[in-house]
């Protein structure tokens, strides 16, 4: 239903491009949506917008929350598009026919030998959608709040092609559901979480969950051609565990090449050497990183300091490339979603679109009169 793990190389490139601030597609979460999102076979769709630095915000559209490949789900609708009753009815019929396989009955048949019927749900984690409706929602709520939530740990290993923002929004909804069962004295507690995801999304994940840290443990998959131990696998897995559990409480196996750093009070890989200048074990990808005294931080061993850009990068990088910052105003201290000028920008874009529409209508009317 969602993007396969084989896309990881592509996702890494997209993640780097996103951090550089050039262009891409962003998810939009309206604070007070006037109308509910349209449905596709995978539940409520998400609102997207294509953004390019230095250009006005493009027209927003709805697309599938789970599938990155249009061959898997080709749903597309402009945000301001009006649909006839006939098209809506046809879409509803299509959604029923193409709903993902594995109904609750099939789930029961598949998992009953391992779990009780009230221990699992058919669920889309990209939009917090329960395919079996309120009954499945209550199964989840009951599970999270059993014994006041004591002993519950959330472990999630989503497809790497998925976007961080929708996942974070969903996880916060599950956390809120768990908190409903907490007493007033325990309101400060956090639901323990393990989020398995590539290391290069660390800043994005910590943007939504500041209390999270990234463990050095490299997650491998026995049934994956690239991310597993052995001669055919990659030398270093890019997959890590993000958690809100204090890292000094998580013991990593020494037989797999991990050691405890007394200064950092956490387990790190053997290659991750403690930097005296940063006062931290700085490596993110399992290799030994080098300290750059000009940047005042450690960087990947393949990077060099560029005198033109005044920061470290790959030797063949483009100095004229875009940098982090806001797509709307160009400032570097915030992103587009938190820009104070975003409301003004939307009003201007809306006015421009209306003006273009009026011109288009006048041209159509002129053409019609000329043909009469």
Helix/strand-derived class? alpha+beta
> In order across it, which strands form the biggest sheet?
1-4-5-6
Total of helices: 7
Our measurement of the CA-to-CA distance between the termini, rounded to an integer number of angstroms, reads 52 Å
Q: How many strand segments? A: 20
Helix and strand succession?
HEEEEEEHHEEHEHEHEEEEEEEEEEH
Average pLDDT: 79
Report helical residue fraction.
25-40%
Uncertain regions spanning at least 5 consecutive residues: 1-21
Which geometry do the CA atoms define? globular
Radius of gyration: 24 Å
Biggest sheet record:
4 strands, antiparallel
Strand residues, percent: 15-25%
Describe the structure.
With 372 residues, the chain is α+β, with helices and mostly antiparallel strands. Helix content is 27%, strand content 18%. It is built from seven helices and 20 strands. A four-stranded antiparallel beta sheet has the order 1-4-5-6. Strands 9-10-12-11 form a four-stranded mixed beta sheet, with helices on one face. Strand 2 and strand 3 form a beta hairpin. The protein is globular and about 65 Å long.
Question: Key terms for this structure?
Answer:
372 residues; alpha+beta; 4-stranded antiparallel beta sheet; 20 strands; globular
């Amino acid at each position: 239903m969602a993007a396969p793990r084989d896309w990881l190389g592509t996702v890494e490139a997209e993640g780097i491009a996103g951090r550089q601030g050039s262009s891409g597609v962003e998810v939009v979460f309206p604070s007070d949506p006037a109308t509910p999102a349209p449905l596709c076979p995978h539940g409520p769709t998400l609102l997207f917008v294509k953004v390019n630095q230095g250009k006005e915000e493009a027209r927003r559209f709805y697309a599938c929350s789970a599938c990155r490949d249009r061959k898997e789900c080709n749903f597309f609708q402009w945000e301001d598009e009006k649909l006839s009753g006939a098209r809506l009815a046809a879409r509803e019929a299509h959604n029923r026919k193409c709903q993902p396989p594995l109904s609750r009955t099939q789930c029961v048949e598949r998992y009953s030998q391992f779990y009780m019927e009230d221990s699992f749900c058919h669920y889309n984690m990209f939009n917090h959608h329960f395919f079996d409706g309120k009954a499945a929602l209550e199964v989840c709520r009951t599970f999270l709040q059993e014994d006041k939530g004591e002993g519950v740990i959330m472990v999630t290993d989503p497809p790497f092609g998925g976007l961080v923002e929708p996942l974070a929004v969903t996880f916060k909804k599950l956390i809120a559901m768990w908190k409903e069962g907490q007493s007033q004295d325990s309101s400060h507690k956090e639901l323990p979480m393990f989020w398995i995801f590539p290391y290069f999304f660390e800043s994005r994940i910590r943007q939504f969950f500041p209390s999270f840290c990234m463990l050095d443990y490299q997650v491998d998959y026995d049934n994956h051609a690239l991310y597993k131990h052995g001669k055919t696998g990659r030398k270093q897995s890019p997959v890590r565990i993000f958690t809100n559990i204090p890292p000094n409480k998580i013991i990593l196996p020494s037989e797999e090449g991990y050691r405890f750093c007394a200064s950092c009070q956490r387990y790190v890989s053997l290659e991750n050497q403690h930097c005296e200048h940063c006062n931290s074990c700085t490596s993110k990808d399992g290799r030994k990183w080098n300290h750059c005294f000009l940047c005042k931080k450690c960087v990947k061993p393949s990077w060099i300091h560029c005198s033109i850009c005044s920061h470290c990068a790959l030797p063949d990088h483009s100095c004229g490339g875009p940098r982090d910052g806001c797509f709307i105003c160009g400032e570097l201290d915030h992103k587009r979603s938190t820009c104070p000028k975003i409301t003004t920008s939307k009003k201007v874009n809306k006015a421009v679109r209306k003006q273009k529409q009026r011109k288009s209508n006048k041209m159509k009317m002129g053409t019609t009169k000329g043909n009469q």
